[in-house]
Amino acid sequence: MKKIAMLVGSLRKESFSRKAAESLIALAPESLKLAIVEIAELQMYNQDLDENPPVTWTSFRDKIREYDGFIFVTPEYNRSVPAVLKNALDVGSRPYGKSVWNGKPGAVVSVSPGPIGGFGANHHLRQTLAYLNVPAMAQPEAYVGGAAALVDAEGRIADESRRLSLRKFLIEFEVWVGRNAD
């Protein structure tokens, strides 16, 4: 079984991204154990603190090292990713040469109430992941538009075609992890 960390880029109480992440956990193949890793409490990255890092940084880095891969679930803010998600990537990538992301497989799911499903955030995040040496799954892509109607009152994906599409995404990610994880 491969352990997969899910990083959710939205802090909002009723976050569409968090609801999408929780739905993905329910749809995951048995060989993948998906778990949300919280990032809200991470102090903003400041290189001056690398010599004596905050406890939240060291515990986050230690936790991320335990995982075999990552799924990043992000909303789109101004055609990019939210600061909280970028900060988590920065904290995990430092100090230089000790990145917790290095070489582990990843995938991106972008979520938006709009029709294009966070396309800008998805591709902007992929640029950062390329630099961090996270092989990001290229296909299938996951753009979740119309996110306000994604889940029903019980928290399940409301539309059967979306459920099948996201299940296919996870099955392909399972293969991707198998090819790219140590």
Distance between the termini: 12 Å
CATH architecture: 3-Layer(aba) Sandwich
Radius of gyration: 16 Å
Main beta-sheet annotation: 5 strands, parallel
Can you tell me the CATH topology?
Answer: Rossmann fold
Q: Unreliable segments (pLDDT under 50, ≥5 consecutive)?
A: none
The CATH homologous superfamily is named Flavodoxin domain
- Percent range of helical residues: 25-40%
Total count of strands: 5
Share of β-strand residues: 15-25%
Overall pLDDT score: 95
The ordered string of helix (H) and strand (E) elements is EHEHEHEHEH
> CATH first level: which class?
Alpha Beta
Number of domains: 1
Strand order of the largest sheet: 2-1-3-4-5
* Dominant shape: globular
Supply the helix-strand structural class: alpha/beta
Fill in the keyword field for this structure.
5 strands, Rossmann fold, alpha/beta, 182 residues, five-stranded parallel sheet
